Amino acid sequence: xxxxxxxxxxxxxxxxxxxxxxxxxxxxxxxxxxxxxxxxxxxxxxxxxxxxxxxxxxxxxxxxxxxxxxxxxxxxxxxxxxxxxxxxxxxxxxxxxxxxxxxxxxxxxxxxxxxxxxxxxxxxxxxxxxxxxxxxxxxxxxxxxxxxxxxxxxxxxxxxxxxxxxxxxxxxxxxxxxxxxxxxxxxxxxxxxxxxxxxxxxxxxxxxxxxxxxxxxxxxxxxxxxxxx
Length: 229
Known about the structure:
With 229 residues, the protein is mainly alpha-helical.
C-alpha cells in the first residue's frame, strides 16, 4: 500500500485551487453532518441520495418517504456521501494531493465539470455491470479515480512522496505509482469477490478521466509532459 502525501508541483495557471478546496470542504462537511446525525438517519440518506442501479433502470422503486431526489440526480449526489472515516479519508487524501494540479491544468470551472462527469460516469459503469443491484453506491472514489488518471496523463514524471506500507516514506515516480494503482483497480474489478467495493465505478471514473482530459486541459499544457517538479 502507498499513501500519497505530497507531490511538490507548483501551480502555474491559477493562484488558488478553488474547485479542489471547495470539493474537499463539501465532502468533509457532509460527512461530519451525517456522522453527527444532523442530516437524519444514515441509511435513509444513503438510500435517498445514493445511486441505486435498479431504481435508475426501473426494475425497483423506492418508497415515497425514501425517494428524495430523482434517480438521475443520484448520479451526482451519491459522490458526496461516504460510508466511514477510512472511505472519506482515502478519497480526500488522493483529491488533496492530485486535484490541485489537475485543476491548474484545466482551469477551475472545467475541473469542476470534469470531476462531476467522472463521478457520474463511474456510477453508470457500476450500474451497467450490476443493473439489478438495489444496494446504494456512495462515495467519491469514481470521481477521484478520474482525477488520478488525469494526473498521470499530465504529470507522469513527477516524484510523489508517500508512505509505503503506511509507514515507510519514499518518493515514487507518478507513472509507476499510478500505473500500479490502475492495474490494482482493474484486477480488483475483474477478480475481486468483495461486493462491498464498487470496483467497476473506479474503472468507469478512470475511463472518463482518460477520455476527457485531452479535451479539457489547457492548450499549452502537454499530455505526458516532461515536467518533473
